[in-house]
Design brief:
The complex is a heterodimer of chains A (108) and B (159). In chain A, strands 1-2 form a two-stranded antiparallel sheet. Chain A folds into 2 domains: 1-70, Winged helix-like DNA-binding domain superfamily/Winged helix DNA-binding domain (Arc Repressor Mutant, subunit A, Orthogonal Bundle); 72-108. Chain A is built from 5 helices and 2 strands; from the N terminus they run H-H-H-H-E-E-H. Chain A has 108 residues and is mainly α. Chain A is elongated and about 75 Å long. The longest helix of chain A is centred in the last third of the chain and has 36 residues, at 72-107. Chain A has helices spanning 7-11, 14-25, 30-35, 41-53, 72-107, and strands spanning 57-62, 65-70. Chain B has 159 residues and is of the alpha+beta class. Chain B has helices at 25-33, 35-41, 131-134, 153-158; strands at residues 5-9, 14-21, 48-54, 61-67, 73-84, 88-96, 107-116, 119-128. In chain B, strands 1-2-8-7-6-5-4-3 form an 8-stranded antiparallel sheet. The chains are: A mainly alpha (108), B alpha+beta (159). The A-B interface holds A 6-9, 11-12, 14, 17, 20-21, 24, 70, 72, 75-76, 78-101, 103-104 and B 1-2, 4, 6, 8, 10-11, 13, 15, 17, 19, 21-23, 27-28, 31, 37, 40-45, 130-132, 134-135, 137-138, 142-150, 153-154, 156-158.
């Protein structure tokens, strides 16, 4: 069974966030990424795999090396979604402002 | 129009929201706990809120629908798990079908009310099993409006 990966799970992990930050600055090879961490290469490679499955990173072959890039479009989705939730709450609460105003008038 | 504080902690999978209202505490409390007032503001327009069951007590529930302009109903259940009158209440919220079968897990909401000089502050801590659960709202037609550009990756990732 294939587990559906979601971007929120992907960024819930601190190592994966660190990887994203690293490659946001510049595209990197898996070895170069692994050198930045104190964990095993397998562990780092597993994290990269999760990020790839979530389409947060893209890979590009350059000669014999693979380079990992950040997938900006996908990162946008997270931001956009959060903004929508915020937007929805703002709408609800602005409506509540009006309701409270009406109720206060009725009391007087 | 008052501003909304909105703090996302992706690691803890929480969203903390804070908002002030120009009204005394008992009224704001009623607005969050009484069916007839809730239904006036809970659904973001053009949706409307329709509460079928409301039993505001510990162990009680609110079973309601967000109704789209086309008449489509999106049901949810909120179960009240703790109530300290006019101070705080906690609930779990989950999407459901029309027969009250919840889609678990939902999210946990912790609402705190405080008043100062006729202004009531409401703080809401929302905790999700998975933030992706909230993605559900995409399906509910809240796609309207806002387009936000990704301006700071650092800010987003370390939030």
């Amino acid at each position: 069974m294939k587990i559906r990966r979601d971007v929120f799970q992907a960024i819930a992990d601190p190592t994966r966030r660190a990887i994203l930050l690293l490659i946001a600055a510049q595209a990197m090879t898996p070895n170069a990424i692994a050198e930045e961490f104190h964990t095993s290469r397998q562990a780092v490679s597993k994290h990269i795999q999760v990020l790839t499955e979530c389409e947060l990173v893209k890979q590009e072959q350059k000669g014999r090396e693979i380079y990992y890039h950040i997938h900006e479009k996908k990162m946008d989705e997270i931001d956009k979604w959060m903004a929508q939730f915020k937007n929805r709450l703002e709408t609800q609460f602005n409506q509540l402002d009006n309701v409270l105003l009406t109720l206060k008038k009725q009391k007087k | 129009m008052k501003s909304l504080d909105f703090i996302v902690d992706k690691t803890a999978k929480t969203v903390f929201v804070e908002r002030e209202f120009t009204a005394e505490l008992p009224l704001v409390w009623d607005a969050f706990t009484k069916q007839e007032i809730l239904d006036q503001w809970w659904a973001p327009k053009p949706f409307t809120s329709k509460t079928k069951i409301m039993d505001f007590k510990v162990g009680g529930r609110r079973f309601y629908a967000m109704v789209s302009p086309e008449g489509q109903e999106h049901w949810s259940i909120q179960k009240y798990t703790s109530i300290s009158p006019k101070t705080n209440f906690k609930m779990t919220s989950a999407f459901a079908d029309k027969d009250e079968n919840p889609q678990l897990p939902g999210s946990d909401w912790d609402l705190t009310f405080t008043e100062q000089n006729g202004t009531t502050k409401v703080g809401i801590l929302i905790k999700n099993e998975s933030l992706a659960r909230m993605e559900k709202m995409f399906e509910m037609g809240f796609r309207e409006g806002i387009t936000v550009t990704l301006n700071s990756l650092e800010e987003l990732l370390t939030a």
